[in-house]
Amino acid sequence: MPNDGECRGTKRARGAEAGGGETSGPLSDFISWQQQKTECSHMRQKIVQRVQEQAQTCLNEIRKKSGQQPTTDAGLQEDMRQALEIKMTQTELEAVKILEKIHTEMGSKILPQALVQCVGEPKFWQVALDGVLTLSSSSPNNHKNVPTAGGSQNSITRRLVEDGFACVSRCDKSGESELVAKLHAGAKQLHAMGLPPTFTTCYDAAWQLMQLHHDRTMKPNVPATHRRVGDVLCWCIPRGGAGFAPHSDRDPADVEASFETGGLGKMHTTWLALSECGASDGCLAVIPARFDPGYKPGAVAEATTSKSDGDGAAALWACLDTKESVQNIRALPLRQGEAVVFSHRLIHWAMRSDLQGESGPRVSLSWTSANPSFEAPYLVDGCEEESTGMPSPTLRIALACAQSLVYWQRFGVPLGLTAGSWYHALFQAYKNSESYFAPDYQKIVRKAFAEAVKVEGDGNDSDAEEAMLDVALQGDMVAMDDFSGDEDDEDDEDGGDDDDDDDDDEDDVQ
């Protein structure tokens, strides 16, 4: 480890951001493709604007010659239709459509190649969302003094202790709204391009937003020992997409030891709505802690054990043992920028959204914070720069790659790639910076990679065998139950799920 506190990944990232010489191969092709995409878009905008101006001029001429003014909207629309028929020549627009079609066909070849070979390179992700989000190691942390979250400190702490969750209002004064809007646009654009939306977490805005929320929500309400863990994810779920099955994030063998003195959990997840997330959008639902017999320290053994049954069903039905108990369920609709914070023991799930809706896909960002004695940060100390409070771009990308492996059953494989090539690309990008991740997390990632390749690869993979051997040689195998497993739907938006079912209802998350 370097003594100056700066990670090797930070230095590599700075070199990449400085330009690093000319690019070639898939990355160069991808950059050219993105430039062509921008040129096509500008060309279309200019043509449409010119045609609209011509149509308006023609409409004025028609109305002037007729000496009559349309008295209804229908009449105005008919006049505009005539104007368009007279003045709009389709030649230029058709030419643009042809270019866009060719561009799309090129993208179906260029994107997969660039993604699998350049997934760990900051330059790739800079170009992917150029003009939308920034990926750098020099973004200043300008949000030093932020107001505390809505509600008094005591009220949020009390809700976390008594109910296991607390809703947090958005804070426009701190700059959160701007960050939320940027991340919302970035996640949707990555999804539209066929790139994994969870890589939105690589960009500066994601880490700035997490820090803002931690400063104004967590610091005033949890012990100072709690730190961000690194279990960060971003989801973009199309309309009609399913949520995720009822579960709690962690199921420790010693439930009582997973709580602080006074009843606060030693781990909390923040689930922030980057888009509108009302009831029709598939909002979260929870069983408040006071109505869950297996939640609290000292819970009866039967109730506690039921939470580890693999799919969370027994734990849920233990809470809903009568018809009247269904009334205890709480729906948590959130406006864009609002969040809910909940403990590792809270049973929660997300509902399927309506197929029709005005708010578009459901986009969310989630991350965890914990007492290191319960769950240590994934990155070792010294990897967050003092000036920004963020790891380097290279390490952020490595973390996103690692998370994509840990949650491989939920994310799926981007179109145009084989499972084996995708998992190897993720693992290699992570492995280049692996020494800057905590040993326990290294085991988890390596085991996830080996399992992913074993299940979806060709079954004869030396890298996967080596990864499993490395884990075995390091000592006890780290259980994956807290990080991956059976998932009811691949569109799981939660940052710490462990009791879910294999996805058989894919909604094209990527």
Automatic annotation (TrEMBL):
InterPro entries named among the record's database cross-references: Phytyl_CoA_dOase-like (IPR008775)
Biased composition annotated in UniProt, kind: Acidic residues: 483-510
Name of the protein described by the UniProt record: Uncharacterized protein
Species this protein is from: Pycnococcus provasolii
Chain residue ranges for the region called Disordered: 1-28, 479-510
